[in-house]
Amino acid sequence: MRSRLILLPLILILILCILALRLVGFVHLFFEHAGTAITQEEIWSAHFGKEGEGKKDERQQRIPKIIHQVFHNWKEPGNETMPADWEETRGTCLGKNGDLEYMLWTETKSRLFIKDHYPWFLPTYNGYNFPVQRVDTVRYFLLRHFGGIYIDLDNGCLENLEPLLYLPAFTTDGGRGALSNNILGSAPSHAFWILMTESLIPYNWNYLFPYITISYASGQWFETAIWEQYHLEREKKKKLGVGLKDGEVKEEDKIYRIWMDDRPISEGGKGGGKEGWRFWTQERGGTWVNWDNRLFLWVGDHLILLCVAVVGLNALLWWGARRCLRGSAGGRRKKRGLMKRDEEDV
């Protein structure tokens, strides 16, 4: 009995320490990110010149001239007719980028692609609880295999995307915490997408809440976690002098995050805010909304308050555990005192 009284608080303290470490690692996903951020205007200017004089870009083109889009109609399986507004939106990208190959990935084509090229992932792909997770994951494999630019169907195009082809790889940053996976680009076989795709199985957990499961097992939170891991590993290699060119990470191993913050500059919009959107538009989305989305959107808006509450709860539990330990120790001392007094009386 005595050992149980001691063991229980110790187990509780250990659990609290593990939770605190996990919380710190998790919260880190929603604040400042590693790596190089770049604005859409900077990409445009690097290609055409600051005044848009149409200078020839002497850099090496790294991303293939391919646009990928994914359409899985999980509400009406087998119906591959796209909603009219999405058809119009993707038409803006087709119209502005006639020189780029276009690849539309339906549910059937996506599964065949995974089966043919990454059969080791097919059981996980088929086993996802939420259809949007297959839309999330297939895009990562497409970039790993073919390279190119992936665009969600609710994003339209304002300009030709050629200036982006001179980056080795990129993701997008909405400036509100986790990175975005709505628009992505890469050369084929880039180390980041290899790490992404090979991390999907270890991250494939059911977190009870649909929003957390989708976000952290395959979506934006997952992408952000791997982003941080990738840059941490690059920094370690840099310190060891591995995979460097002239003391820096090789250009082909870099990946940029492009600002896509739609808040006005006056409200803290980063990268020029919505005024700085040179390449894309944002139209109707929200097709993967579940019952808990509003809850976690609220959490995202009150993240600091929530962290304070969690830390306070941990402190309260820690105090309770210490009280238990002291109470147990005090009880033992009292019992020993009574036993000693009984012996003296005898």
TrEMBL record:
Main location: membrane
Biological processes per GO annotation: mannosyl-inositol phosphorylceramide biosynthetic process
Claim: Zinc is one of the keywords in the record: no
Compartmental location: Membrane
GO MF, one annotated term: mannosyltransferase activity
Keywords: Membrane, Transferase, Transmembrane, Transmembrane helix
Stretches that traverse the bilayer: 295-319
SUPFAM superfamilies cross-referenced by the UniProt entry: Nucleotide-diphospho-sugar transferases (SSF53448)
GO cellular component: membrane
PANTHER family found in the cross-reference section: MANNOSYL PHOSPHORYLINOSITOL CERAMIDE SYNTHASE, MANNOSYL PHOSPHORYLINOSITOL CERAMIDE SYNTHASE CSH1-RELATED
Name of the protein in its database record: Related to SUR1 protein
Protein source organism: Phialocephala subalpina
